[in-house]
Specification:
This protein is α/β, with parallel strands linked by helices and about 325 residues long. The protein contains six helices and 22 strands.
Length: about 325
């Protein structure tokens, strides 16, 4: 009966029907009945509806360190069946907690959380080989990124909307780890063509220095940043194609007298590599046809401390 009378009153408000005549007693909600934590005891349907509406429409509060802001339930895609809650409150027993039916436009909620992600996420940064400073390799620092925990944020917002709990919701973030750090950089070679020196670094730390031979003025060792792309033990030597100086020469098998010594570390620069040489007297001079010659024992050692992909800088110094 109370539900029927409350429904009549709500219809009267909506369609402008006259209120009950003076002296007619309106149904009241039992003591201690709550919706969204609001005590509706002793209220009529009209007052209860206004109080529930006000409680539901309170903005949801967010915070991130010193920054705070608010968003309305409408902005978050939430709608509530307040009339049903009033009707259920009129029928509720003393002290009963009545649930407010709230439905959400999930698409709008996800859109708002995506907006938060754009505001507060930060991309991770991988360490990278930036080049040379003072002829030594420089590796940038990696940085941990962060990303909003979207499922958790959506759940927290939905809980606030359904329960009326408007305590500040903090932005929940998860770390995004870099895939490349400074520790991932190992062998790096710097060749100073002018002074015929090869420097081996482990990351940015100098490991060892070697005297080498580089190309003559007619066949200069190419400057630039290259990498090791081919590694061979006991290699064959083949005359470079289209080279005038080698047109009458034959391939040389592995063994004593091989122009490449016992190790070949080919670079991404065409037909250029780091290798041993049986001509130890050429070390320290610009004497090759473009390659970087080393003492055979030192080339053997270097071979064990580099790998495919090792960066090689060749500079004029």
């Amino acid at each position: 009966m109370l539900r029927f009378l409350a429904s009549l009153m709500l219809l009267a408000l909506v369609f402008g029907v006259a209120a009950p005549a003076a002296g007619t007693r309106l149904p009241l909600i039992e003591s201690g009945v709550t919706v969204l934590g609001e005590n509706l005891g002793g209220m009529t349907a009209v007052r209860a509806r206004a109080k529930i509406k006000k409680a539901f429409e309170r903005p949801v509060r967010f915070g991130f360190y010193q920054k705070t802001w608010r968003a309305t339930p409408h902005q978050l895609g939430a709608h509530a069946n307040i009339d049903r809650a009033v009707s259920n409150a009129l029928d509720a027993e003393r002290g009963e907690r009545v649930t407010l039916d709230v439905w959400l436009q999930k698409r709008r909620l996800r859109k708002y959380v995506a907006h938060l992600d754009r505001l507060f996420s930060r991309p991770m940064e991988n360490a990278r080989l930036a080049g040379l400073v003072n002829l030594a390799p420089v590796i940038t620092e990696s940085r941990i990124g962060r990303k909003v925990k979207a499922p958790q944020m959506e759940a927290n917002i939905e809980r606030s909307l359904r329960t009326g709990d408007r305590r500040t919701i903090g932005i929940e973030l998860k770390p995004v780890l870099p895939t490349v750090t400074e520790d991932d950089f190992h062998s790096i070679i710097v060749i100073r063509r002018g002074s015929n020196q090869l420097y081996l670094y482990d990351g940015s730390s100098l490991v060892r220095t070697f005297r080498v031979a580089t190309g003559t003025a007619k066949y200069p060792t190419p400057l630039g940043q290259w990498s090791i792309v081919d590694m061979q033990r006991n290699p064959w030597w083949y005359p470079p194609p289209d080279s005038e100086w080698s047109k009458d020469l034959k391939p040389v098998p592995p063994g004593p007298g091989n122009p490449l010594g016992t190790r070949w570390m080919g670079l991404s620069a065409p037909a250029v590599g780091i290798h041993g040489t049986p001509d130890a007297k050429s070390i320290g001079y610009s004497a090759s046809h473009g390659c970087i010659r080393m003492l055979i024992s030192e080339a053997d050692w270097l071979f064990e401390h580099v790998d495919h992909g090792t960066p090689v800088f060749i500079v004029a110094a």
